[in-house]
Design brief:
Layout: E1 9-10, H1 23-32, E2 37-43, H2 49-58, E3 62-72, E4 78-85, H3 88-103, E5 109-110, H4 111-116, E6 121-125, H5 131-136, H6 142-151, E7 154-158, H7 165-180, E8 184-187, E9 190-191, H8 199-210, H9 231-238, H10 242-254, H11 277-291, H12 298-313, H13 317-332, H14 348-352, E10 382-386, H15 390-401, E11 406-414, H16 417-427, H17 432-441, H18 450-456, H19 458-465, H20 468-480, E12 484-496, E13 507-508, E14 516-517, H21 521-526, E15 530-537, H22 538-554, H23 568-576, H24 588-597, H25 602-611, H26 620-627, H27 638-643, H28 654-664, H29 669-681, H30 684-700, H31 705-719, H32 725-744, H33 746-756, H34 761-773, E16 777-778, E17 788-789
Parallel strand pairs: 1-9, 2-3, 3-5, 6-7, 7-8, 10-15, 11-14
Antiparallel strand pairs: 3-4, 4-6, 11-12, 12-15, 13-14, 16-17
Length: 790
């Protein structure tokens, strides 16, 4: 029976620009060949461990979790080793070792550190730049090898047999020395790409990584193949020493790691007094309710109690307190914060904690759209700060909860279609003119793939066929397209952990003493850690600058959160479409929509923000006609009349869909949110289940079956276009604030826009033209000040 073995010295594309192997490709290969265990050992990182582990478990393949690391065996000598987790303790130590390599000791792991973390680890000496090879090349003394073999669970890797006499001589020497030192030997072929056809693509990746050309590597094609192994490869490489294969099976048997993906690890808010977190939350909310004169309103008290009970049941009290605390820090530090983002604006608790600035009852926003008691998931409160003050808040959080507990999140930039072609072309030595010729044939449109372009462009297909080099380049570019190219920092994500992060997450070096996680955002959430989004919003920076300038020029202090929402001058500006510089409202299409709708109240701004998207924008003329009573809107169905009154009978918001399901079919609002999600995901099976439930609930509520089906079809038809009203209301607040600033303080508004547009010539030209049309004279630069006169 042919041997179906596991390659230990295998790197994936998470070893950036060093492997073409993706985890799905790896697992598919092993499934196809019936291999029962898989291993990865990326260079110094564990970024792919969780996707690898999950994919293995789904495929009933045993995962071996490893990593290649450089170890400083002596003060003068370093070499590579493969570290594998024998058990969960070993996995925990791998996390620490990887973090140390990436944040503290990038040149290699000191031997004493490896000794401290050796519990649960199996060391495999690789066949390239390993300890044994270096000893045979007289780079390290035999005594060092003996010492390591005695102090660690140490295995010696043996390369496959080949036709090169020199290689086989080294192989024999490794086997002889290992036998003398009584060290177990195991097979360690090297794998870096999927199949032999990817050999050139792998060399190109290496050239991109090292900023070289293929011509600098004259013998790249002579490097032994490093493709994924088949039964035939094992037969040819190790037929002469069958005990090596037995040793490999024993090694695989030793490795037993189980990663718990079922737990959630929420941070705790520190409380100094005897209050419980729940009592503190309730006290804060009730105090705020009183201070804004809403304590005597029954609907607010009922909504508050309802939300707090759900927050307590779901275990999210500390989460809300943590967000309340850093928002309090922001206010006390004179940092402007956004009115809210996403569905969090639907929470009264968030409003009372001054996390958001939108009263959800006033605008008919639903808590279940944010936190659904029928679908347990982590809350997601995204916070906007001025882009130049975001780091101040992150630093505060890191200092409060401990820098070992807080990290920013990594994201990987990938080789998109055009980048794959250009990078490949550079390694092939193409001139700038030749690169431009290729680049011209590949659109820059996001999401475009090389295969898409190939199918759509006859010119490209002809160009590829012109030369062998063009065909080679195309094949390589398609192979490397989509692979990770570099690591960078996620624009918003922050992780706060109740324990030192390194216990569950490998780390990278970050900026400002705050590390980066090696795991991406989706992986962090899958292992139960809480992500918070701290977003830098340029428009808040503009409002902050305008506030300061208005104070200087008019001695007036503007509080953007207390503006009257019925300001006539602001609405006239919007009706004219005079919205250059106004958040979300300055595109040409949006100006036309404003000129058509002619907003007269805040709800019109919210509606136009929600409607101006592909699909629902077709409803804008109907909204305008019904608003101006050019077309009468009659709705005999009481529920629809009530729910759709503010949008003139048009379903604009997701919350309206939820309310219809709630009032017609007696869904709870949590169930109505599940219906909304089902419609957006377009799962035929789930939609059919929801249809039956909706129709039955409607019939039980007194509707005919025919009418119930009509209403369900109405929901399905419009749900895919429905917009999150909570988000629309919150972001329309920023739109209104900037429109108000432009209407009442046009010189200060324009001054700030010009100042912040320096370096953007097109933007400056547009603003200068607007200044001219508004009869604003711009004087020459005097010292460091620009003076504006009307």
């Amino acid at each position: 029976m042919a041997f179906k073995g596991t390659v230990l010295d295998l790197q994936t594309s998470y070893s950036l620009l060093s492997s073409t192997i993706t985890i799905p490709t790896l697992i598919d290969h092993y499934k196809h060949h019936g291999i029962k265990a898989a291993a990865i050992a990326d260079e110094g990182v564990l970024s792919g461990v969780i996707p690898f582990y999950k994919a293995c478990k789904e495929a009933t393949i045993k995962p071996l979790i490893g990593m290649r690391a450089t170890v400083q065996w002596t003060e003068e000598f370093s070499a590579s080793t493969l570290l594998f987790a024998e058990n969960n303790r070993g996995y925990e130590n791998l996390l620490k070792i990887s973090s140390a390599l990436q944040t503290i000791s990038s040149k290699g792991l000191p031997l004493n550190w490896l000794t401290a973390y050796k519990e649960g680890l199996l060391l495999v000496d690789p066949t390239n730049n390993g300890l044994m090879i270096n000893h045979l090349n007289q780079h390290v003394e035999r005594a060092i090898v003996e010492k390591i073999a005695n102090e660690f669970s140490f295995f010696v890797g043996v390369p496959p047999k080949n036709d090169e006499e020199k290689d086989n001589s080294i192989r024999t020497s490794i086997l002889t020395l290992a036998k003398e030192l009584n060290i177990t030997t195991i097979p360690t072929p090297i794998v870096r790409y999927t199949n032999e056809e990817e050999k050139l693509a792998h060399s190109v990746l290496s050239c991109i990584r090292d900023n070289e050309k293929l011509s600098d590597r004259h013998a790249w094609h002579q490097i032994p193949d490093q493709h994924m192994w088949t039964e035939q490869d094992w037969e040819q490489g190790y037929y002469d020493i069958p005990e090596l294969l037995e040793n490999l099976l024993d090694f695989i048997e030793k490795c037993e790691v189980e990663i718990d993906l079922t737990k959630t690890y929420l941070p705790k808010y520190p409380i100094d007094n005897d209050l419980t977190p729940s009592n503190l939350l309730r006290n804060l909310c009730r105090d705020r309710l009183s201070s804004i004169n809403l304590a005597d309103k029954k609907q607010y008290e009922e909504r508050l109690n309802y939300e707090v009970e759900i927050i307590e049941e779901m275990g999210f009290v500390d989460y809300f307190l943590i967000v309340w605390d850093f928002m309090k820090f922001a206010r006390e530090s004179s940092i402007i914060t956004g009115p809210g983002r996403g569905s969090a604006a639907g929470s009264l608790v968030a409003y009372l904690l001054q996390i958001t600035k939108v009263d959800p009852l006033k605008y008919g926003l639903l808590f279940e759209r944010f936190l659904n008691p029928d679908r347990v998931s982590l809350p997601d409160i995204d916070i906007d700060f001025p882009d130049h003050r975001r780091d101040d808040v992150i630093e505060y959080v890191a200092n409060k909860y401990g820098k070992k507990h807080v990290a920013q999140i990594v994201t990987f930039g990938t080789l998109a279609a055009k980048a794959a072609i250009r990078d490949t072309g550079r390694t092939f030595g193409l001139s700038t003119k030749e690169l431009e010729q290729w680049s011209r044939l590949i659109p820059s449109k996001p999401g475009t793939t090389l295969e898409d372009v190939y199918q759509q462009s006859k010119e490209l297909r002809s160009f590829i066929q012109e030369t062998d080099q063009n065909q080679q380049m195309w094949h390589v570019a398609k192979t490397i397209e989509g692979l990770p190219r570099h690591a960078s920092t996620h624009a918003a994500g922050i992780i706060i952990s109740p324990f030192p992060l390194v216990e569950k997450v490998p780390l990278l070096h970050g900026g400002e003493d705050i590390p980066l996680t090696q795991f991406t955002m989706d992986i962090l959430e899958s292992i139960g850690l809480l992500k918070m989004d701290f977003l830098g919003l340029r428009n808040l920076s503009l409002l902050e600058r305008m506030q300061s300038l208005i104070r200087q020029t008019t001695n007036t202090t503007i509080n953007w959160d207390e503006l009257p929402l019925e300001d006539e001058r602001t609405y006239k500006l919007l009706q004219r479409g005079d919205t250059t510089g106004v958040f979300q409202l300055e595109s040409e299409g949006m100006r036309k929509a404003l000129q058509l709708i002619k907003p007269t109240e805040f709800s019109d701004i919210v509606a136009v923000n929600a409607l101006y998207r592909p699909g629902p924008m077709a409803q804008i003329p109907l909204y305008q006609k019904r608003k101006e009573k050019i077309e009468n809107y009659q709705e005999n169905e009481p529920v629809l009349k009530e729910v759709l009154q503010e949008t003139y009978g048009i379903i604009v918001y997701q919350e309206q869909i939820m309310q219809i399901a709630h009032k017609v079919a007696c869904f709870t609002l949590g169930e109505a949110d599940l219906l909304r999600r089902a419609v957006s995901k377009k799962s035929v099976q789930v939609l059919q289940q929801q249809r039956q439930k909706f129709v039955q609930g409607s019939v039980n509520n007194g509707y005919s079956q025919e009418r119930a089906i009509q209403l369900y079809d109405l929901i399905v038809r419009f749900a895919q276009y429905g917009f999150n009203k909570s988000h629309a209301v919150a972001y329309s607040m920023i739109s209104y604030q900037l429109a108000y600033a432009k209407a009442h303080f046009p010189l200060e508004f324009l001054s700030v826009l010009l100042t912040t547009s320096i370096g953007n010539q097109d933007r400056l030209a547009m603003l200068l033209m607007e200044a001219k049309e508004s009869d604003v004279t711009i004087l020459p630069l005097l010292s460091t000040k620009v003076i504006f006169l009307s």
